[in-house]
């Protein structure tokens, strides 16, 4: 027990400490006041000394408060709470059933609705999703088992535990994992999943000392049985026409080894492949990589102008079907990125709702749709969005940010700052500790399985046996009069 004297002494010390901190706080306010009033760089701080600082605090905190307290379920961008919650719940294998009724406003122009069939497909009549073989004419074609797959995100943009979880999860889900443009890390291979190797403009992982494509390195990568296809990245929805600099500070020994660049030196990604300056160059490059690797080769692009596609298809007609890309990945203008300038993120390129029907129609008209598989990406993170893309003409769906949510991403929008609070895009070991690859791998598997299951539910409700039988007539879009019209009326029949 404390004696009364000791108790009073402790109280006195606490009182002095209290006064000391009050004094310190007062002094700090006086110093901040003087600093604010004497500076002219920030008008708010000069005109409203001390309290002006709250503006910065509230601006920062507003991002978080809006998400948790103020934003409605269907309000936020890039992904609203309803979309994110669907991914979180499916990744945890929690039920996706909801009570009372829809919170989705079905009136705005552009709203997608599916046309249910009066006689939906019975469970016993449902069929498994048909498999599609990509590059049937290649030495080693790829029969892709999953409709829904993981889009390119490089090791570097993503943390090590995130890549490890994706690799293991993709294996469990039997889907492919795209490496992104940062080369092939051991972490991509760890789980044993099918890999799509992406060749970016800097040719990371398959470059020689001058930064040119190295056939020797290509052969080495292609010799790995896990690597199933090669994707030439022409552009990405969030930043078409933008290269980048990887600062020397980020070029650790490990990154340098994986990417094939000198340690601790800045590394420049050109804003296009220097050797691809025309449709003919693109076909040459595709044919070359296919000849060296023996595996399917395609390209990824966001569509802006589209006349070049006419020329590409015409050229394929002249050279023969064997010269065609085995697949085209169409990325939406509103796709994601680790970092990109706002003017490109917000304004450059066409969204998928315009580009996907444009490209699939073009390929169908010229009889190339069976030969060239179409992979769609861009905000297709929930089953209905993916089902829409299948209706329009996609053969496969890929997602990047859907899988980031499945890994635990909370849309803190800090991917470029090394401060990602969930460990998905940070290289800070303390923040990475919360991301356990074994636990998150199971979430990745659940997410893929629940996506595929629920796309199937939509297909059956529309009266077809499986997702790949969905057609434009199965979906409708609300027009400016507030009435819906079928997609085949809007875009035209699939030719
Ligand atoms: C963190 C991050 C890194 C990315 N890195 C690449 C990349 O290396 N190569 C690429 O082609 N696309 C990259 N992307 C774009 C995605 O692959 C995808 O095309 C785009 O985000 C649209 O899909 P989503 O809406 O499902 O995210 C990246 C996206 C994110 C969010």
Description of the structure:
This protein is α/β, with parallel strands linked by helices and 495 residues long. Helix content is 41%, strand content 12%. The protein is built from 17 helices and 15 strands. It starts with a helix and ends with a helix. The model has no long low-confidence stretch (mean pLDDT 94). Residues 151-154, 157, 180-181, 198, 233, 236-237, 300, 331, 335-338, 377-379, 381, 399-402, 415, 425 line the site of flavin mononucleotide.
List keywords for this structure.
single chain; 495 residues; alpha/beta; 8-stranded parallel β-sheet; 3-stranded antiparallel β-sheet; 17 helices; 15 strands; binds flavin mononucleotide
Q: Strand order across the biggest sheet?
A: 4-13-12-11-10-7-6-5
What is the typical, i.e. mean, pLDDT? 94
Beta-strand fraction estimate:
5-15%
Helix content: 40-55%
Please describe the biggest sheet, giving its number of strands, its sense, and whether it closes into a barrel: 8 strands, parallel
Bound ligand species: flavin mononucleotide
Number of strands: 15
**What is the first-to-last residue Cα distance?**
90 Å
| Radius of gyration from the alpha-carbon trace, in angstroms | 26 Å
Could you name the ranges where pLDDT drops below 50 across 5 or more consecutive residues?
none
Overall geometric form: globular
Number of helices: 17
């Amino acid at each position: 027990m404390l004696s009364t004297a000791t108790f009073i002494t402790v109280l006195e010390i606490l009182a002095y400490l209290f006064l000391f901190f009050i004094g310190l706080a007062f002094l700090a306010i006086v110093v901040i006041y003087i600093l604010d009033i004497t500076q002219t760089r920030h008008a708010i701080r000069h005109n409203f000394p001390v309290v002006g600082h709250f503006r910065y605090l509230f601006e920062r905190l507003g991002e978080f408060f809006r998400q948790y307290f103020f934003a409605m379920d269907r309000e936020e961008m890039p992904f609203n709470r309803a979309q994110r919650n669907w991914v979180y719940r499916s990744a945890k294998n929690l039920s996706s059933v909801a009570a009372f009724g829809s919170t989705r406003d079905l009136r705005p122009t552009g709203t997608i609705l599916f046309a249910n069939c009066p006689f939906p497909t019975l469970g016993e009549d449902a069929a498994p999703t048909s498999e599609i073989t990509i590059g049937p004419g290649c030495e080693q074609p790829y029969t892709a088992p999953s409709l829904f797959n993981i889009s390119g995100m490089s090791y570097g943009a993503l943390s090590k535990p995130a890549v490890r979880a994706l690799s293991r999860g993709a294996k469990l889900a039997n889907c492919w994992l795209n490496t992104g443009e940062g080369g092939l890390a051991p972490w991509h291979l760890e789980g044993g999943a099918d890999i799509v190797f992406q060749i970016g403009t800097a040719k990371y992982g398959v470059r020689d000392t001058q930064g040119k494509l190295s056939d020797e390195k290509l052969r080495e990568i292609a010799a790995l049985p896990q690597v199933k296809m090669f994707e030439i990245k022409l552009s990405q929805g969030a930043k078409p026409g933008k290269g980048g600099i990887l600062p020397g500070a980020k070029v650790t020994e490990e990154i340098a080894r994986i990417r094939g660049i000198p340690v601790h030196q800045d590394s420049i990604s050109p804003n296009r492949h220097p050797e691809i300056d025309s449709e003919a160059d693109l076909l040459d490059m595709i044919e070359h990589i296919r000849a060296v690797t023996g595996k399917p080769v395609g390209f990824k692009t966001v569509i802006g102008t589209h006349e070049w596609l006419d020329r590409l298809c015409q050229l394929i007609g002249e050279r023969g079907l064997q010269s065609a890309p085995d697949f085209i990945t169409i990325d939406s203008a509103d796709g994601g990125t680790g970092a990109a300038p706002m003017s490109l993120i917000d304004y450059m390129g066409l969204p998928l709702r315009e580009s996907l029907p444009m490209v699939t129609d073009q390929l169908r008209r010229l009889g190339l749709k069976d030969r060239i598989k179409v992979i769609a990406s861009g905000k297709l993170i929930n089953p209905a969005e993916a089902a829409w893309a299948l209706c329009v003409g996609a053969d496969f769906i890929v997602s990047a940010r859907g899988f980031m949510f499945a890994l635990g991403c909370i849309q803190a929008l800090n991917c470029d700052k090394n401060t990602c609070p969930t460990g998905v895009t940070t290289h800070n070991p303390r923040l990475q500790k919360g991301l356990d690859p074994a636990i998150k791998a199971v979430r990745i598997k659940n997410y893929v399985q629940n996506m595929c299951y629920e796309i199937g539910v939509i297909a059956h409700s529309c009266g077809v046996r499986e997702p790949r039988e969905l057609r434009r007539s199965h979906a409708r879009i609300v027009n400016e009069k507030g009435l819906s019209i079928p997609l085949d009326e809007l875009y035209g029949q699939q030719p």
